[in-house]
């Protein structure tokens, strides 16, 4: 019992010391939205969350959509997005490709230091290695309109939620759907231009 008392006393002191320490929470927001979308800055990123497997049809989909843009003025950027993807299924595979230039505008209305609403328009081309099926074109134009929300989690990184309408006749999936609505997640990195460093 005599040996137990000092051990309990040391345990109590260590526990009290650990509990008294200041715990730093990870950063989840940054007040930098106005600095990130200035004229001369660059925008690079990608759509994420577009990997899927269908157990009934035994198909696996993987699409990568990297993008890059340049701010031609405060709040307005132009750029291009590439579509690279593959669908694997029992009996074959289908490779996807495309390029869609875009124009994006961040709305000053409803803006805050940590987030911005934006609208985007895309127009380009897309296609696939799949043979013509059900009258769908192998190679086709792509048009789309999107509305989104960018939440800045660091000085130059934003997480985005985007609702899009895309119109295409190609045998592809742009985002999460062919012609129609899709909801996607993405991230963007904002790099300062020469004059904004």
From TrEMBL:
Residues 1-20 form the signal peptide. Keywords: Signal. The keyword Signal applies. This is Porin family protein. It comes from Adhaeribacter rhizoryzae.
């Amino acid at each position: 019992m005599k040996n137990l008392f000092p051990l309990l006393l040391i345990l109590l002191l260590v526990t009290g010391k650990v509990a008294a320490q200041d715990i730093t929470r990870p950063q989840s927001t940054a007040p930098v939205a106005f600095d990130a979308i200035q004229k001369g800055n660059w925008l690079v990123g990608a759509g994420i969350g577009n990997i899927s497997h269908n157990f009934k049809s035994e198909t696996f989909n993987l699409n990568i959509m990297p993008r890059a843009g340049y701010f031609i003025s405060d709040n307005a950027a132009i750029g291009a997005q590439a579509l690279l993807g593959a669908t694997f299924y029992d009996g074959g595979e289908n490779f996807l490709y495309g390029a869609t230039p875009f124009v994006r505008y961040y709305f000053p209305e409803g803006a805050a230091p940590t987030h911005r609403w934006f609208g985007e328009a895309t127009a380009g081309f897309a296609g696939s290695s799949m043979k013509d099926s059900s009258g769908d074109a192998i190679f086709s134009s792509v048009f789309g309109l999107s509305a989104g929300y960018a939440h800045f989690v660091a000085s130059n990184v934003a997480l985005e939620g985007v609702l899009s309408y895309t119109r295409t006749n190609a045998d592809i999936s742009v985002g999460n759907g062919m012609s129609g609505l899709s909801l996607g997640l993405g991230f963007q990195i904002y790099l300062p231009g020469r004059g904004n460093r």
